[in-house]
Design goal:
Length: 231
């Protein structure tokens, strides 16, 4: 959860500021949007780790924004609203909200609930076997291997290389910008775009040597993705 990015979609600037302040105090990064259109644009571009979403928004309401987020994937979402009716809560949960907080709220409670949701999310991701084409990653054993016609080849990776590979494998075919990979995978003091290029160059060489040439590719002017070659 360290350095996780929180997107706050809230049309009342004072409330958004309070929520952001409390998250920042706890070491999170934040970005805010005052309506659903801007919020969805931020979500598409920045790929936040969790969304705090108000129901009463100008234009698209929170339920519509939540539905749009769910069509894109499984980003955790906590609804924050003045509506306390059970039907409203059920609607949010039915569409796919991970939690629900009613105004007026204690900002510390929102942060605590967000941490609980993120623990569940990261725990699920970190404990699951990841497979992309011939690659299998076991996060718990901190191991990765390539399956070939002649058998399984273990990858000898540095800690940073393994972290990058696991992060890329969590969303196959998605192109990650260098800055995203720096924020998510590189330790403090090593966080430079050219440094991530060096790590990924070494990682690509090791994958190719193990029989998985073309698994890790660069997208010119954008970043990197992990995808099984066709054919």
């Amino acid at each position: 959860m360290e350095n996780a990015l929180i997107l706050v979609i809230e049309d009342e600037p004072e409330i958004a500021d309070i929520i952001e302040t409390y998250f920042i105090r706890e070491g999170f990064r934040t970005i805010s949007a005052g309506d659903g259109v801007v919020g969805l644009a931020h979500h598409a571009m920045l790929k936040p780790d969790l969304v705090i979403l108000d129901v009463k928004l100008p234009g698209q309401d929170g339920y519509e924004v939540l539905a749009a987020i769910r069509r894109r994937g499984d980003t955790p979402v906590i609804m924050v609203t003045a509506l306390a009716e059970d039907l409203d809560k059920l609607q949010a949960l039915r569409i796919g909200a991970d939690d629900y907080v009613v105004k007026p709220f204690n900002p510390m409670e929102v942060v605590a609930r967000a941490k609980a949701v993120l623990r569940r999310t990261f725990g699920r991701l970190s404990g699951s076997m990841l497979r992309v084409g011939p690659l299998t990653i076991d996060p718990q054993a901190h191991s990765a291997r390539i399956d070939t016609a002649d058998g399984s080849v273990a990858l000898e990776l540095t800690k940073t290389e393994f972290r990058l590979l696991r992060h890329l494998a969590g969303s196959p075919n998605r192109v990650f910008e260098r800055s995203e990979l720096v924020d998510a995978c590189l330790p403090e003091g090593d966080a430079l775009n050219r440094t991530v290029d060096s790590h990924l160059s070494n990682l690509r060489r090791k994958l190719a040597s193990a029989g998985a040439d073309g698994l890790l590719t660069s997208v010119r002017g954008v970043g990197y993705k992990l995808a099984a070659p066709h054919g």
